[in-house]
């Protein structure tokens, strides 16, 4: 079987008929306009990675890092609150996503690594990024460093550190997405838009689960991101865990209390995945990753390799993003197909 690449974002477009590009959601009962007219919405306090943060007004010049984070803002229709976004150009086709207008309206500040000078030049008042999604002590680009120059930060909830060294993850991946949508809805006074998105996502996930493989039919699934000496994969707190599980698979690394992390090949072999999902991004193509997996002799006896059951999803489908629910629907169909 050749790898299956499904345009998960296209499936999502139909689900978001009410939300459109995010900016077109109609507030119920005039809630947003009424709150603004009464001046009663602010200040608001949200909890982000365990820290309570209060906003007296909506941030006006947000810089986002990476594609999933950027599309969360676009899905909420917050382009007018953005100074721009930073991300490399290896994140797939951006012209067919439900929020393509956001890319057209917003400045692509850099295809290189985000840094303090860049966000200062952009006039940012808030940076929406995450640990290993732009923030890193090794690079000196941290929320604390930005605070010292008067720039606030919002951390992607998938990237929250859990107190075990630099391990990340404090909640289930989809809960992280819903938490960020709820928080941003309050921060930017677009709670109705956030509620509409969350409701549509929950329905899409529930519909996919209703059709997913169950019980003994659930195949063991391994997420392969990259790496040859040691594979980079997903633990329980990165997007692929919920995507695999709710799509009808048994995530073989569900016991890893981290998000994106490396494991040994011996662990993969011992757990004998029946399906491998490749994360498609970067300089190494999905076909090259597939060729490596097929040619790596220690994996020759693994069920997924023997039966050529390899599926491909794009990076943005797998990191926290508004494309996660569509990825569940897509993978559920793939697992049913590969299981037949």
Structure explained in plain terms:
Helix content is 37%, strand content 18%. By secondary structure, the chain is of the alpha/beta class. Strands 4, 5, 6, 7, 8 and 9 form a 6-stranded parallel β-sheet that branches. Helix 3 links the parallel strand 4 and strand 5. It starts with a strand and ends with a helix. The N terminus is likely disordered.
Ranges where pLDDT stays below 50 over 5 or more residues in a row are 1-38
Distance between the termini: 12 Å
Helix content: 25-40%
Relative strand content: 15-25%
- The total count of strands amounts to 15
Task: Give the integer mean of the pLDDT values.
Answer: 90
Largest sheet: number of strands, sense, barrel closure: 6 strands, parallel
The topology string of helices and strands comes to EHHEEEHEHEHEEHEHHEEHEEHEHHEHH
State the helix count.
14
Shape descriptor reads globular
Helix-strand category? alpha/beta
Rg on CA atoms, Å:
20 Å
Layout of helices and strands, plus pairs?
Layout lengths: L3 E2 L2 H8 L15 H8 L5 E5 L2 E5 L6 E4 L1 H9 L6 E5 L13 H6 L2 E3 L5 H6 L4 E6 L2 E2 L7 H5 L4 E4 L17 H15 L3 H21 L8 E5 L7 E3 L4 H8 L3 E2 L8 E3 L2 H7 L3 E6 L5 H10 L7 H4 L3 E5 H4 L5 H15 L2
Parallel strand pairs: 1-15, 4-5, 4-7, 5-6, 7-8, 7-9, 10-12, 10-14, 14-15
Antiparallel strand pairs: 2-3, 11-13
Helix pairs in contact: 1-14, 7-8, 8-14, 9-14
């Amino acid at each position: 079987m050749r790898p299956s690449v499904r345009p998960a974002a296209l499936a999502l477009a139909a689900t978001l008929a009410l939300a459109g590009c995010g900016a077109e959601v109609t507030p119920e009962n005039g809630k947003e306009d009424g709150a603004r007219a009464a001046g009663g919405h602010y200040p608001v306090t949200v909890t982000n990675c365990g820290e309570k943060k209060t906003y007296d007004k909506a941030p006006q010049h947000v810089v986002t890092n990476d594609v999933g984070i950027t599309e969360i803002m676009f899905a909420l229709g917050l382009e007018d609150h953005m100074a721009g976004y930073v991300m490399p150009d290896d994140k797939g086709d951006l012209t067919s996503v439900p929020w393509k207008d956001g890319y057209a309206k917003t400045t692509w500040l850099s295809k290189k690594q985000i840094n303090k000078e860049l966000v200062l030049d952009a006039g940012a008042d808030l940076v929406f990024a995450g640990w290993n999604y732009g923030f890193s002590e090794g690079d000196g680009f941290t929320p604390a460093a930005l605070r010292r120059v008067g720039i606030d930060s919002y951390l992607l909830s998938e990237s929250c550190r859990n107190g075990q060294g630099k391990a990340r993850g404090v909640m289930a991946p989809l809960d992280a997405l819903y938490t960020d949508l709820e928080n941003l809805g309050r921060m930017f006074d677009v709670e109705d838009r956030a509620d509409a998105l969350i409701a549509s996502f929950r329905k899409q996930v529930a519909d996919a689960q209703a059709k997913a493989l169950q019980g003994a039919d659930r195949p063991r699934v391994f997420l392969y991101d990259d790496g040859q000496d040691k594979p980079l994969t997903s633990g329980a707190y990165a997007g692929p865990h919920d995507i695999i599980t709710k799509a009808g698979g048994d995530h073989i690394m569900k016991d890893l209390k981290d998000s994106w992390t490396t494991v040994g090949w011996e662990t993969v072999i011992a757990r004998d995945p029946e399906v491998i999902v490749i994360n498609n991004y970067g300089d190494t193509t999905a076909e090259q990753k597939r060729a490596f997996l097929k040619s790596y002799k220690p994996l020759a006896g693994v069920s997924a390799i023997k039966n050529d059951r390899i599926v491909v999803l794009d990076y943005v489908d797998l990191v926290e993003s508004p494309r996660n629910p569509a990825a569940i629907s897509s993978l559920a169909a793939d697992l049913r197909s590969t299981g037949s």
